[in-house]
Design a protein that fits this description.
The protein has 107 residues and is mostly helical. The protein has a single domain, classed as High-Potential Iron-Sulfur Protein, Chain A, CATH 4.10.490.10. It is 20% helix and 6% strand. It contains two helices and two strands, in the order ααββ. The protein is globular and about 35 Å long.
Length: 107
């Protein structure tokens, strides 16, 4: 059985609840979505930043040489786009050069 830290479990649960409560009333297109602000409460909880180079590598839970939203398994949209949707922040676009604490490597 996988060992998940309690704090990480609570964070991921909050994301799941937020996604479940999102209103599916209208189909959203990436160009219609607002950019995620770094001071957004969800972004703050997930330690999101628009520039991954500002994050101390020692503070990252997942060790990897380079971690950005662009090489995260949770990002969506077209490769090469500067701002793309992310499964963690429904209804918002994240910067491809950004980073958050939920970063997971693409497999």
């Amino acid at each position: 059985m996988s060992k998940i830290a309690r704090r990480k479990f609570i964070q991921l649960s909050a994301v799941a609840v937020a996604g479940a409560l999102a209103s599916p009333g209208r189909r959203a297109y990436a160009q219609d979505l607002p950019h995620l602000a770094e001071d957004d409460p969800m972004a703050t909880a997930m330690k999101y930043t628009h520039d991954a180079s500002t994050v101390d590598p020692a503070s990252r839970v997942n060790p990897a040489a380079e971690q950005t939203c662009d090489n995260c398994a949770l990002i969506q949209g077209g490769d090469g786009d500067e701002w793309r949707p992310c499964q963690i922040f429904p209804g918002k676009l994240v910067n491809a050069n950004g980073w958050c604490s939920v970063w997971a490597p693409k497999v």
